[in-house]
Amino acid sequence: MITNLTLTDFRNHKSTRIETGGHKNIIITGANGAGKTAILEAVSMLAGDRGMRGAPMGEIAQFNGNGGFSVFACTNDDTELSVYFNSGDTNRHAKIDGDNANLSDLAKHLRIVWITPREDRIFTEGASERRAFFDRLAASFDSAHAGRIARHAKLLTERAGALKNGADDKWIDALDDQIASTAVAIAAARIQYAGEINYFLSDAAVSVEGLVESMILATNAADAERNYLTYLKSNRVLINDKMILDGVTKSDFGVFNMVLNLPANLTSTGQQKTTLLNLILAHAKLVHTKTGANPIILLDEAVAHLDKNAREKLFSELGAAQAQVWATGIDSDVFIGVPDAIFVSCTDGGVSNII
Fold it and tell me: Are strands 204-209 and 252-257 parallel, antiparallel or unpaired?
């Protein structure tokens, strides 16, 4: 858990420090534009990636004249973590206990997941958003998963270029071998994650569908890799300079509401939000069970679309969760009843703790 957080020149936060006092639930309230979401974004960057907004570093630093920013946190085991960006740099940097570190090393200390208003539409929008969401969850304890996805995308780009330029068959054979191998590893991780999170879900069920996933489920990973390689070799024609390939970039995750006996996309907005929150809470239980760690859950506009009963159920589950939750909202009154909570009032980039 994070015991204190310091933001310097981060969006509209010139210098902000939050002491959590060891509380499990940190509730950040304030008017629109006060900087509530920026605090969650800063926490999300301590996972080592670009954060929950995926914003360019210069955009984050644009509110101050220095052209840089820093995020510093201390955890309950006295580990000090920081992410910073300097003016003129192209990349972020990380430190752990004051020593320079790789950004990827941060994830070993904090496992962070989030829900923003963007994820509220995850069941009704395209498959790419769902893939990104669930792949991010799977990568929270399989750090190689994100790397495999990035490598697979790069290999596909190289393959398209090789086909367009009439490269030697042996070169394309080598690319196809690597593509098949990474695709099967990606699909296998997705299948494993869906099965594991379903163990902790009672009101919903997660599934994953796709060509490579189906090949694995029908046989095994080794056979699936051979079968997918055969598919790749038989599809080496460009149409309008584009590859028309099926594979893990076309896969989709499905979520079924067990209570209503309906796919999540056919339920109401409030029911979809409840399902999404149940997924994140189940994920927290899964992470704790597999790793012993208590993840950090970021909930931007946490209670949007939830009625009174749904809010009360959520607050009860937050109290039981093996996680630290950072949640935002405009009105602090709707969070009355959240157990083990500290309230942080955010006003135009400044904060004050109200315990």
Answer: antiparallel
